[in-house]
Input
Amino acid sequence: MATRVGVVVFPGTNCEHDALAGLEVAGARGTLVWHTETQLRTMDAIVIPGGFAHGDYLRPGALARFSPVMEAVGRFAAEGGPVVGICNGFQVLTEAGLLPGAFVKNRGLKFVCAPTTVRVEVTHSVITAGLEPGTRLCIPVNHFSGSYVCDERTLAHLRASNQVILRYLDNPNGSIDDIAGIANDAGNVVGLMPHPERAIDELLGSADGLALLRAFVSSSACVRAG
Output
C-alpha cells in the first residue's frame, strides 16, 4: 500500500496541488486535508504546504496555528508521526510551537522567487534520511518573510543537537546561520523554506527536490511499518 500523506489546506494555501504532484512522483498517495479537520488517524505522514494561510494577516502562520487541524497535527507529531512544513508551512510550524524560532521579512525587504542551492547538513530527519551529508541540491524559494531568526540560546541548541538539516550556500533572505531547514529533536518534524515539490523534473529546472520527497516518503513508510 502506498504511503498516505495528508496535505493540509488553509484558506490562502496555494501549493497544495504542487505538493500532491511531488508526493505522487515520489511514490506516495496524497490526500487534501481541510483546516477544520480534527483527526488524522488514516494518515502516515503530514505535509503543510506553501501559500498564504489566512492571507498571512498579522504575520505568516499566526492565524493558521489556531485552526482545528493544528491540534491534530500536534498530536500526530507527539506520537512520532512524520510532519513536514514547506515555506508557509514552516512558518505555521514555528507559530504552533512545533519548531523553534520565527520568521521576519527578507533582507532588503524584497520578495524572492528564484532557484537557490542548499546543502544537506545532517541525515537523521524524515526528509534527509538516506542522503549524504554535504549533498548540494538546487531548489527554488518563493517568499517575502523567509528570513529565519532565533535567539542565541536556541541557535546554540540547534547546532549542538544537529537540528539544522539544510543550509543555504547562497543565502537569499538573510536567515541566521544560513538556515534553510531545521528539525525537532526527534527528527520527525521538519520545516524548510525551499520548495522541493517545485523541483521534481528537469523540465522545471531541477529534479533535486525529489531526493527530499523520496526520503520523506521512505521515512514515513518505515514509521508506519515500525
Summary: The chain is about 25% helix and 25% strand.
